[in-house]
Structures are given as C-alpha cells and as structure tokens.
C-alpha cells in the first residue's frame, strides 16, 4: 500500500516533469494531455512498486523526462512514455488508450507494448533472438517508438543496482548487443555512451572502477595540458570574432576499456584519452561549412595536422545524421590531440540524434526522416526475406549498425553509402542482386580491380559481369554487408540443396560397399576429420566435390582415443534458486557438485581464476566461457534463459590448456633457454611450441598445461625474464585453431 509519503514523492517527480515540459507545451491542451496521461498511468500502476521499493509510476515519469530533456521529443512522445507500461503490466488495453488519447498515442503505446513483450525475459525456452527479430519488426511504425524504448532501457540501466545479479547479466548483454548499437544508429551518441558505460560498470566493476579512479587521479594534469593546448586557439578564435565554446572531453570509460582490451595495453599507455571540442555560434551570412573550415585553418596555423586524420562529416554527414569536422593535430610536448569542430546545431544533433533534426528545419524533417525510413525499410526487408535463423541475421545486422561508412560513386555519378570495410562485391550487391551474382571484377577509378578490393570513399566503381559467373562460398568470407551475404547465401542454399542430395548418394554407396552402417559413431570420426560442423555440411561438400572419400578407410579405422579429458572443479548456481528467496546464504549453498557435466569453450579457454559464465545446452551440458568472451556476451544477450552462474571452486584436480604468445630479439640458444625454463624450472607440460624468426626478431606461441591463473602468471614472469624475450602474454585461443569452434574435450 502507498503511504502519504509515497504520494508526496510521486507528485514531486511529476511536477519536475511538468517543468521540463514547459518548452514543448504550446497550448493548454498539450499540458492537459500530459496531466491526464499521468493521472491515468498513476491510477493504473497504483500500489505497485519497483524492485528498488519505489512506487512503479516513478519509472514512466523518469522515462518521460529522459524523452523530453535528453532527447528533445515532443508532447505525444512524453504522453506515450508515461503510458508505456500500462497495457503490458495492468488490465488496460490499447483500446482504452485509444478512447482517452486518440489513435496516434494508442499506436505508439501499442508499439511499445509489442516491443516490451518481444524483448521480455524468455519465460520458457523461447528464443531471445527471435524476440529481438520481432522487436525490430515493430520498428517501422514510428521511429519515436524505438527512441522511447531506448529511454526506457536507459532508465532501467540507471536503476540496475536493485536487480538480482543474474538478471543484470542478461539486461547488460542485451544492452551491449542491441540497444547501444541502435542508439548509435539513431545518432543518440550521449545515450549510447551512457548505456555502454553502465554496461561496463555492472559486467566488469573492478575494471570500471580502476579506469574511473585513474581518470580522476590524472584530472588535474590533464586539464593543465588542455589549458596549455587551448590557450593559443582561444586567442586566435577571439581575434577573429568567432563566438564559441571550447571544451576538453575525456573519452568514455567504455571506449577506453575497449581500447585497452583491443590493444592489450594499460590505461597509462593510451595517449589519446581526450578530445578538444569547439562548438561555434554560426555567424548569420557565412555557411556553417565554410565556418568549420575557417576554424580548422586557424587551428592548423598553430598546430600541424596529421594528414590522414581529417574526417569531413560536414560535406557529407554520416547516415545517422552526425555532422562535424574532426582533425588530429600535434599539440605541445609532441602529443596528438583530436579536435572536433561543430556548429551549435551540429552539436545538438550529435547529442540528441535524429530528434534534433526535427527541431531545426521543416525541410530537414522530410529529408532526414526519409533517410531513416529508408533504413528501417531495409531492416524490414532483410528480416522478411531472411532465410537465415534469427541469430545469424542479428549478427550481420549488428555489424552494420556499428560500422562507419564510405561513400562511393556509380558510373553515372550517383552516390552509394556502404559500411567501412566494404569490398567491390558489396557494392555490386548494393546496386542489384543480379549484378552481384554475375560479377567477375570491376573498374575502380577506371583501373581493373578484383571483387575483393576494399573500396574507399570517393571511388567510382563499374562492375564487370559475365553470364557464366556465379557466387562462391568463399565470397562470404569477404563481403561485409548484410545485403550481399543474404543474396550469396540464398543462391548457395539452392545450389547446396542439390549438392546435398548428390553427396548423400555418394556416401551411402561408399558405406554400402564397406558394409558399414551410417551410425552416429561413424560421423563422430568423420566430421572432425573432414572439418565439417555437421552431416549436412559433409554431404554438401561431398556432393560439390570439395571433399572426397579417398581417406575414408583410414579415417574409419583410426583410434579416436580422447585427446585429453580435463577436469576442473566448477560450481554452478541454479538460477531458479537465486530467483526464489532473498536469503543470500541459501543461494550460495545451491551449488551442484561435479555431477554437472560441462565443457570449456575453446574460443576463450577460461582457466581457474578467470571470471566465468556458463550456458546450458539442450542436453543439459554447460559450456563455460570467460565472462569477457565476445561469444559469451552474444549468447547471454540472445539466450539469457540458458545462463548458469558459474564460478571456480578451490580444488585443483588437473591442468588445463593455455596459450601464451611470446616475442623478442632472436639470439642463439634462446629456444633452448625457453624450453629449459619451462620444463626443468617450472615443470610445465608443453603441448605445442611454435616459434618463427625473421629479421632478427622471433615470435611464436606456446600451448601448455598449467593449473590455474597463478601458475600461468608465474610462467609468464619467468619466461619474460629470459634474456631476449621482450613480451609474453596470454592469448585466448590457438592461432592455428582460430576458425575451429568445435569443442574437443568434454568431461
Ligand atoms: Mn518500462
């Protein structure tokens, strides 16, 4: 039950919202509608509390406030945000909303309800990926629906602390996997950044805290540097009578973390921690673009620009609407500094995304909305025509959400925007499926180039075709756009079905000749030997003549004794029990013993001491990944229902495989020193040692069996002390097996 205190709290929050809405309410009717929506939602959620204990209505109020303050949408969006959970969580229907608030609001609330339903925690075993797909299909109705959904997610992320931990894992992975990329695609950079930072805070609290602590520790020296850097710029801008604001901005915690991961460096080794931003007030008569370049010219009079680091999104904005001029210049003390130049209008677009466009020009609304509509249509088309399963589709879709762009020209001079990294073949498919299917090469800027040539902005491309050409499987390894992949896959699928039939015939005959039955046992030997993931792949490759049965006898008689069965003591927590009571002691005793069968994911090779997470498959086998493994994050976002909270126990029973990369200066005897250190001193069991030396440098890797993280650290530091060794670090998987995702050892 609500107390008087609750009511006071609710009213305070709503008054806050009303104040925020002052600027968007043009008439009394606007204000009345917001008040009515609040009264309606407040009554509907009456008596309900959030996990944090707050009255539920504070959540829709907060979402509405984000919608108006942080994104800049209008009255209808505020009303829809207030009502966004009413239909799903209470007895009211969309019809009730329609009667009170009209068609437009009803359809937006309907869209939000559908998205919510689609994205709900999978209650049974329903596929989260399918849910996402459904959710994306609701995109088309009104862009504002997805924006309000993002505001909803943002507030849920801001209040995530009160959620149970394993629910946090799922919400965080969804956010990283889908919502942050969507915010990026819609140009909502500020929201994207906050979503990413919050995700990091909950998934890797130690790393998050370490980075934020470091940032605040270095704040004063950094701001001294920025002042020193800015001083001459300020003087010059003032001399030229430009009205502006200049700020030094630190990169987001998440982007710093990403960079540390990607480059395997510490925060001290990241030199471009911040960027300087100049936001200018446009002078009436001069076009904004000219002013951007004027400021650029003033800055580069002072500091030398890095020639390959100019990004001109003023002449051609990004597809998500972003406009700005970026450059990197050599600042004092030989430090590269990124400078971003924007007008006030561009700045607002950068902060608030598409919504900000609507505010500026009526004309702009049409053109920009048109572009967004086009994109949404593409998403829908791809979803509808997709022959793939939802998981695969989302992978490609996500790739396209994040990539930045190149702009190229057709022979007639029309422009096409493609994601960065796109090749000639992507361009061909972008124009037309048949053009892609028949392509054999291209003239890029009048020079003959292969289909796999990466295209760069400004290229003019003419595709060369042949009537006998057809798509090949390897094309899939080169193209990057969802459109090209889709087209190639659907062509290959047809071809494959024919090959499959043919291959099955060949194989059955071969077995008949040998009097062998096509049992599971046979395939267990065959598939790894032919490097096929499943029977179908084996049949179709056989049918297509890619593989043959020359070695069949040898393979069938080979002894496939287990390579090495590994045992670790892992503890699995039953998520249902965690859900159950609030009793924490109870939860920690629900560990199962070693009865749970599991395997160690070879994509990340977790070892005792690593933070791990498990996923149960349909046979009840748990696959254990490192918490930071990309594949694990993806799976958590798509099949949250399969998450099994997992942690290492204290018992060390056997050793596990780990891979270490080494580099150094080559000298006589280094290999001997290396193997002696490993075997004699450390008593390590080496599985594989691979060293390559060239130009006086040696590099390579060692696969070895050790007991835990501690052991590995000892080895790394001992090896690092060998004369000539420059760097030693752990890598996640064997470079030789990079494409092999089969799990070989199961306990
Ligand atoms: Mn909500």
Explain this structure.
A hairpin with a 5-residue loop joins strand 14 and strand 15. A 6-stranded mixed sheet has the order 12-11-16-14-15-13. Strands 1-2-5-4-3 form a 5-stranded mixed sheet. The protein is 51% helix and 16% strand. Bound molecules: manganese (II) ion (MN). Manganese (II) ion binds at residues 59, 84-85, 152.
Strand order of the largest sheet: 12-11-16-14-15-13
The geometry reads as globular
Task: List unreliable stretches of 5+ residues.
Answer: 121-126, 359-369, 560-569, 574-594, 737-747
Assembly state here? single chain
Record field, number of beta strands: 20
Q: What would you report as the Rg, rounded to the nearest angstrom?
A: 29 Å
How does the major sheet shape up?
6 strands, mixed
